[in-house]
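Please review this one:
***
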Amino acid sequence: MAKGKHISIPLSHIAKDLELHIFPEGKSEVFKIEEAEALEFGEFPYQILESQSYEYAFSDKGYRLSCDNKGIVKESHREEFSGRVNPSYYVGTLKLNITHKEKELKRKHTFLEVKATKFNSDNIDKSYRENYRFMLEDITEKCTELLLQVNSPIQQHFETDFDKESESLYQQFSFVRSIIGSVEFEEAIQKIIISPKTDWADNKELADIRSVKKFTRNSVKQLISRGNRIPIPESHPLYDKPFTNIPSHIINNKKIEFIDNAENRFIKHCLQTYLHFSEKCMGEFEDGTRSHKEAKYLTTKLELHLNNSFFNQISRPTSLNFNSPVLQRKSGYREILKSWLKFDLAAKLTWSGGEDVYHAGKRDISKLYEYWLFFMLYGLFKTKFKLEDIEHDGNLYESLIQKKDKSLNFIIKSGTHTAFSGISEFENRKLNVRFSYNKTFKGDTKLSEKVEGSYTKNMYPDYTLSFWPADKTDKEAEEKELIVHIHFDAKYKVNYSGIIDDTREKEEESERKGTYKNVDLFKMHAYKDAIRRTGGAYILYPGNNKGDMKRGFHEIIPGLGAFALRPSLNNNGTKELGTFIEEIISHLLDRASQREHTAEKVYDIHKNVKEDSDTLNEPLPEFISDKKLIPSEISVLVGYYKDNIHLTWIKDNNYYNVRYGAKYNLNPNEIGAQYLLLYSKDQTESTLFFKLKNNETKVYSKTELKNNLNYKTIPSQEMYLVYKIEEELEKEFRDINIDLTKLDGLGANKRPKTISLEILMNSKIK
């Protein structure tokens, strides 16, 4: 791959000596690769980089440039034969349309290859070729595994439909190419050629009697009966025993090694079938397009294999013996058998989501990374949870593979909701678990609606894990704050060592340079803060580090962070993510977790709607006993006094008594009341407000009440609950006057009741 100051694309197919010049701007680069390399990788020789800016100009001022992808080509207002090409995040083959200001053109387009850089900016080819191919091959592997797990569709007989639209056919070709165009496939063929399965057979040949090393019964018979005999010297041990002569030549059986066996015939049959498929695809694809180049290259490779002298010695198969130990176990053979089992399925598989990845020649590596992550997460979560039920686009499915006309369709598609759910049983708890792909959390969802959603705009996390108790529906769990959502977002463009810059100066510098990535973290904040009942939100990106995590408080959730998941066979980052999921499970099994306690408090606080007009604007102490005063959580005992004698005893002794016993039920709020409001018969207002001492409420018998507490009248009950009154009252509550008519439930039975301080202060006479 050669870098240059600019590239000149020859357009002689349009006009003699016509060229399109591409000039890099700033730190952007241009490249030109050899035709052989371009053919091998299905690319075009003239190449630029994504997210960079380039100038262009025609050698003839009469020509104009445009592109079907809006915004990529911008024509200069001053000189219309020139302008700028800015591919932004587009990756793949970019088709450029060429017109002339005065005449109609017959062949009117050319191509540029836009290469990806984000996976590995130091090695662009690795980013664009290896990672793209690895992810596509890995997706194919997972799809065919799913096909093999499905019983119903694959029992049907399908034929590859070459009459379908080229886009659908290219999806199938891409699946097949990822199987038979892989390095593993190439190595398998070479292993077979170098170390093939061989058989032995007897070969009859006319041999000089002197060259025969071993005599069989048939050889001995020929010594007696065969003609063209020669005399034996008298000195020879065989002379006259009983021979005087022997034949000069006999027919001898010789063991020879040959490769024309069932296993090698199967290998040749596979290659011929693959070649036929590739040739048919090449015939359907438009000449000059990426798909045609890829099919042509694959066809050439398969033809080279079949033209090897090894396969010239092998005949057509009469049967296919898949139970052969050689096919199943011998290196090289087992890989080809594996490819064959996948090929028949992959050649029938379409994928509606494939249009997002390689529609019209593009190689949307960002979208492919999102799909690849889906398979990685689906595989990981299947090992952790029971995800048996499948819902796609609002409908229930038995499998991700759907029978459709003459093909099988993989239903996963970006932008369409797919969910996997089930009940997972752990050592101390059963939980509903749901893994969602492309779930929409509807915006403008009010808390009073008690449903899932976002209280601002619609939110679209790529992946969501949701947990809630097994004995509740998801709607019930949302209503009672019992569900927790964990969101993940695929960020192919992110490539940083930490999720947040250390200083404001670094943030601003990154923003000026155009490498500002904190916006990705801010989006996670948006998910966490806007989507109700969210426990955490995390970026998934193809970095080399182990990511970063931030805890909102003390526990694993709520939190934010990033995990690096790399397209790699080994050390791809799923181990670290798996450890995080295990920590999430452990946290959810903790029945004393702070997050669960907070969720219960949130439900209790917000279960009733509080209108903007419902305010409490009265002076109140900030703290009570060094604890923040929350008016709704402070209990006020509204108690009855019989007469002035009773009231005098209360004030003089700082006690208040309540009848107690089996027939009198006292709730915790009454026992733990912090304030006391007194009233008597026929009163409509009361200024008798007192503070009660903490932990000094005691039970007294009527005798103890009379003798120990100097009670002035004869007690009528056997037992009493007695409260101790503080001598001092906060200044905010002095001279308070309460409208008793606003306090419901002051019954004729004169039993005390408790109300909140909030209700009391709202009944204050101003």
